[in-house]
Each structure stands twice: as C-alpha cells, then as structure tokens.
Amino acid sequence: MFDKAVNSWLDGYRKIFDYQGRATRREFGSFLVIQFVLFFVVAIISSRLFGGSSFMSTIIATVVVVASLATMLPYNVRRLHDAGQSGWACLAYIGFAPVIIGVSLAMVTKEKNNKYVVDTQA
Fold first, then answer.
1. Closest CA to 72 of 28, 118, 110
2. In this structure, what are the phi and psi dihedrals at residue 115, rounded to the nearest 5 degrees?
3. Which domain of life is it from (predicted)?
4. In this structure, is residue 119 part of a structural domain?
5. Contacts of 16 (CB under 8 A, 6+ apart)
6. Residue 89: its H or E element
7. Residue 68, domain member (yes or no)
8. Mutual angle of helices 25-50 and 55-82, in 10-degree steps
C-alpha cells in the first residue's frame, strides 16, 4: 500500500504537464498526503539549518510551494476528469484552492468512459 502511495506521488511529478486522463481518489489523496508531509519536513529542516525567518528558509519554502502547485493543478484536472467534470473548474483555484481540492477529492468516480476520457484498458 505504501509503494502505491509513493507511486501516486511520483506520478504527480512524472505527469506534471499531462492534463489528459484520470486520477482516482486514492491516487490524488495519496499525493496530497505525501506533499503535505514533505512540505512540513522541508520546512522543519530548512528552519533548523537556516533559522526560522531567514531569507534562505523563505526561498526554500517558496520553491516547495511552487513545485507543489505546479504538480497539484494537472493532478486535480485528472481527478476532475475521473469524476466526469471539466478540468476548467480548477480556475477557481485563484481564490478557493482548499475548497476545490476537498470537493475533487470527495467526488465519486463516474463511468469508465465519459466526455473527458475514454478508458482504453477495458
């Protein structure tokens, strides 16, 4: 189970520019949990190495946040496709990111084929 979670997290980075296809709730949830843990581990390490409010600590945190958002957006689009929704709903990230992430995580998978993706493994 842990190896599937790690593979789901790695898929976020492997498919960083892939807005096609689908992502299950388990894959997306695993990705979010590992990203969350990784962010705190990096924050703790950088604050211990550079001091909590140092410039370098801020730069490291910014890089991690930008990398997280860059991978989260296409992953969330694929999650919305799995639920039969348009990926354009992610435009609401501008002001409502936690709400959109929570809703897309809670959405149930629709039929194998929908207007956003055709299941070729059937």
1. 28
2. -70, -10
3. Bacteria
4. no
5. 70, 71, 74
6. none
7. yes
8. 180
pLDDT at 122 over 70: no
Retrieve residue 25's tokens: 């709730």
pLDDT computed for residue 96 by the predictor: 73
The predicted structure's pLDDT at residue 18: 85
Total count of residues recorded for the chain: 122
d(CA 119, CA 114): 9
**Claim: this prediction has a pTM higher than 0.85:** no
What are the CA-CA distances from residue 68 to residues 37, 72, 75, 110 (Å)? 12, 6, 10, 27
Residue 96 covered by a domain:
yes
